[in-house]
């Protein structure tokens, strides 16, 4: 098994819910093998409180999150990403920056919980559903034998996870 730490960037348009939750989940369960980051193409500047509530429900830390622009991760000196995963359809359709190091990319679309309507419990459930979907996909990615897969196989496997 490789001692390499894999950097994973989760992208969404506003970087206020799905990508933030994915970052938190990966950093909570990824151990020393994975490090999560998140960003948005048009960051909202705030993190959705219901996203943090969903992370708390998964017994994960919620401190230190901020909504940030994806340009931060395309700058010299930024961590080099091994994976760049879009978690919203809008971000997947946008022209992304060129990421140093040619990371594996995939789309893991998750319905936007911020668009959920209904009472407080129904809205909270939408965030919970998004968080548990992301957690399952992250667990599947972590189970891949990354070090033994060639780039094309890894690209294919990470893409398949986004359809789970």
Description of the molecule:
Helices cover 37% and strands 13% of the residues. The longest helix has 24 residues, at 120-143. It has helices at 18-29, 49-57, 89-92, 120-143, 151-161, and strands at 6-12, 34-40, 83-86, 104-107. The radius of gyration is 15 Å and the shape is globular. The chain has 164 residues and is an alpha/beta fold. It starts with 5 loop residues before the first strand and ends with a helix. It has a single domain (6-159), classed as Response regulator (Rossmann fold, 3-Layer(aba) Sandwich). 40% of the residues are buried. The chain contains 5 helices and 4 strands, in the order βαβαβαβαα. A 4-stranded parallel sheet has the order 2-1-3-4.
Q: According to CATH, what is the class?
A: Alpha Beta
Give the count of helical stretches.
5
> Main β-sheet, in a few words?
4 strands, parallel
Q: How many E-type strands?
A: 4
**Strand order of the biggest β-sheet:** 2-1-3-4
């Amino acid at each position: 098994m490789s001692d390499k730490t894999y950097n994973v960037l989760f992208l969404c348009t506003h970087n206020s819910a799905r990508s933030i939750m994915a970052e938190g989940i990966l950093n909570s369960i990824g151990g020393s093998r994975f490090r999560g980051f998140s960003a948005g193409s048009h960051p909202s500047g705030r993190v959705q409180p219901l996203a943090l509530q969903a992370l708390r429900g998964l017994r994960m830390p919620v401190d230190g999150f901020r909504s940030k622009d994806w340009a931060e991760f395309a700058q010299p000196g930024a961590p080099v990403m091994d994976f760049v995963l879009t978690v919203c359809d809008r971000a997947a359709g946008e022209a992304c920056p060129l990421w140093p190091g040619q990371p594996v990319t995939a789309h893991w679309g998750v319905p936007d919980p911020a668009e959920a309507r209904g009472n407080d419990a129904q809205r909270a459930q939408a965030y919970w559903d998004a968080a548990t979907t992301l957690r399952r996909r992250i667990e599947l990615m972590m189970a891949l034998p990354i070090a033994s897969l060639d780039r094309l196989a890894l690209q294919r496997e990470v893409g398949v996870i986004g359809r789970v």
